[in-house]
């Protein structure tokens, strides 16, 4: 049996697993774990919980591989499993307040790898970034799961309307509508929580 590498198609790796080669699942995990994590943490806004959910998603995917159609997109199938777990988690804890995730939403490079976000700003700039992240996550809390999901797929994952439609199993028109209202609501919420002009200034009032 040939050794799997970064060019081995998902369908071939899945076929190997189904034929008894359990090690063939490892390249799949390495290929998609960061992309899936970036999406899940955007939904649940808690790093530790997101890691647990991603692990559970891969376990569930492994146990359900015999239901995967080899002519389909494996990432779309895996994403749906992970997102369903994330949505269930959000609904279970909807009534209790959770702490905001105090890191930037993971950025991705062309291969889907998460990028470390290094900053050399001073304390004032770091505080502003932290406050902005908190405002963003607080605003996302006000979106429905469906709005949050479509916003993440578009803004974090960078998917096209057609790809979002396939991932979520909804028409493109619905994608566009949800994205429009999600963006509009986010803009309104961020505008409401924006610091007042001149806030924090130490200048005298002149009176």
Q: Tally the structural domains.
A: 2
How are helices and strands ordered from N to C? HHHHEEHHHH
CATH topology of the largest domain: Rna Polymerase Sigma Factor, Chain: A
| Strand elements, count | 2
> What is the arithmetic mean of pLDDT?
77
| Largest sheet descriptor | 2 strands, antiparallel
The outline comes out as globular
Q: CATH homologous superfamily of the largest domain - what is it? A: RNA polymerase sigma factor, region 2, helix turn helix motif
* Helix content bin: 55-70%
CATH architecture of the largest domain: Orthogonal Bundle
- The level 1 CATH classification of the largest domain is Mainly Alpha
Low-confidence stretches: 95-120, 200-207
Strand order of the largest sheet: 1-2
Strand content: under 5%
Radius of gyration: 20 Å
End-to-end gap: 83 Å
The helix/strand class is mainly alpha
Helix tally equals 8
């Amino acid at each position: 049996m040939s050794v799997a590498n970064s060019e081995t198609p998902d369908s071939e790796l899945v076929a190997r697993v189904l034929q008894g080669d359990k090690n063939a699942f490892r390249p799949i995990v390495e290929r998609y774990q960061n992309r899936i994590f970036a999406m899940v943490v955007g939904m649940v806004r808690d790093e530790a919980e997101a890691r647990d959910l991603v692990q559970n998603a891969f376990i569930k995917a492994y146990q359900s591989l015999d239901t995967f159609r080899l002519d389909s997109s494996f990432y779309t199938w895996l994403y749906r499993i992970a997102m369903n777990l994330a949505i269930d988690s959000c609904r279970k804890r909807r009534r209790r307040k959770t702490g905001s995730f105090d890191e930037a939403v993971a950025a991705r490079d062309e291969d889907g790898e998460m990028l470390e976000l290094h900053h050399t700003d001073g304390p004032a700039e770091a505080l502003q970034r932290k406050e902005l992240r908190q405002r963003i996550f607080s605003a996302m809390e006000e979106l429905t799961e469906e709005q949050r999901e479509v916003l993440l797929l578009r803004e974090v994952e960078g998917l096209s309307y057609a790809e979002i439609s396939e991932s979520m199993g909804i028409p493109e028109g619905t994608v566009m509508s949800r994205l429009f209202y999600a963006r509009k609501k986010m803009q309104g919420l961020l505008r409401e929580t924006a610091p007042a002009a001149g806030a924090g200034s130490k200048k005298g009032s002149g009176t």
